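ESCALATION

Customer reports they have been waiting on this structure for their group meeting. Please prioritize. Original submission:
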Amino acid sequence: MHTQTLRQSTAARLDHVRLDGISRSFGDRRVLTDVNLVVAHNARLGLIGENGSGKSTLLRIAAGADEPDAGTVARPARTGLLWQEVPHDADDTVDDLIERALAENRRAEKELTDAAEQLDGTDDATERYANALENAERLDVWGVDARRDRVLAGLGLDSIRLDRRLDAVSGGQRSRFALAALLLERPDALLLDEPTNHLDDSAVAFLRDELMGWKGSVLFASHDRAFLDEVATGLVDIDASRAAVGEASRATVFGGSFTEYLDAKQLERERWEAQFAAEQDELKRLKYDVDVGARQVSHRRGPTDNDKYIVKFKQARTDGAISRRVKDARGRLEELRENQVRKPPKVLSFAGIPTGSHALADGEALLSVRDVSVDGRLDIDRVTVEPRTQLLVTGPNGAGKSTLLHVMAGDLRVDKGSVSRRRGLRVQLLEQDVRFARPEASARELYEKALGAKRAAQLPLSSLGLVAPRDLDRPVGSLSVGQQRRVALALIIAKPPHLFLLDEPTNHLSLALATELEEALGTYPGAVVIASHDRWLRRRWRGQELALHPA
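Update from on-call: job pushed to the front of the queue and completed.
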């Protein structure tokens, strides 16, 4: 995530964000089509949609960090953008990031000091001081350091020294510092991309309270279902398929909660499928009427000499009626062909975890962790994973959840204690942040290399319902963060391990896939260990739980 505040002199008095007719393509791939959206002052809209649907692109365009191919954007002069990644210079410290956010406050404080020193009784000096004092009071320059400390503490960052380099703290900590900087900058409009990633319960609660009291427009993309229910005043669904039902915009605002949205979305899909089926039936009937009616008129038997006059008269009336019906049917047929609802596209739906040798026989533990310590990051007495263990690891940031998973995966050495594994144990870890060694390779290439040609042919990547057909041969480096995580998940479940470790599995995944994945893991025939802050997942969890605390 990255903060960026953009200013426009032409929008100095604007108090909302407005997008009109926004379209954006990358090469031959259309991402956004004719998006119209207004984020009113004091509205908090949650941006939702499938991975790769254009949520991050829309946020960047709304902030001015990317240009649309078509359409216009209006936004407040002070608009803040939070990115998923945090680009930074090599020598940047945490303090550099925070002080950039407080630059306006520091300037106002300096101007007040300079104006006070220049007071000499003249009208100009007095007016300068009065203006500087008013601006300082508006920005609350005297309370800015206390506010900084409160925000850092609220996001769980108060124990980290501000003189540390940004590249010396973890990715999750950098993300939280970027969020802290944006909150301290207090722009008039907030555009947030996955703001709850890397936040524990207390930090999510702090952010929730900050946004609930925010004076300005808020548009945020989030996978956090509980957070959407609590914070959003409305939901914005970006769905590429919506253009198929004749709507001018791909952005549809829903005024209820996320829970209510799920029901409404299902009903909408059912209505669309029913309308498509009804129109297809009508098209068949109209085509039949046109074909049969035309044959009746053109192939009718001619009259005999005895009844040719009366029959000719009756036949003309009948032919006229049939011709009118054919003409009406043909007109309706042409109209329906031109304006018919297109076939609902197949929903990218997770096909579940393939069958395979997920489990080892009962009788011996798969893995045992005893009296383990890792460099102040983890201290744990004992964890035992049986062949069908379902374990949820919880705890605040810094408690060692990710560290424990890496110890179990065998890619992190312990400083003290022991880790024993059953012979022949296969372990796979779905990490929080996916990095591919070959970003230029396609998802299909990585899949075939990881599984081998025979297994990849037996279980094609497309059959898993994780990667859309149009994305199979695109370089993985060009995919969205969520799409890349889908690829990483596919590489694991195509050859299911005996022990499946997942670090924040719902991060970056679409809301639909997160739900489907949870259900699949609940019936996984091997062992599953999940580390998660996701309150929605935790509320529905039926397995064992392990609560960790900071070492």
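Sent to customer with the following note: The radius of gyration is 31 Å.
Escalation resolved.
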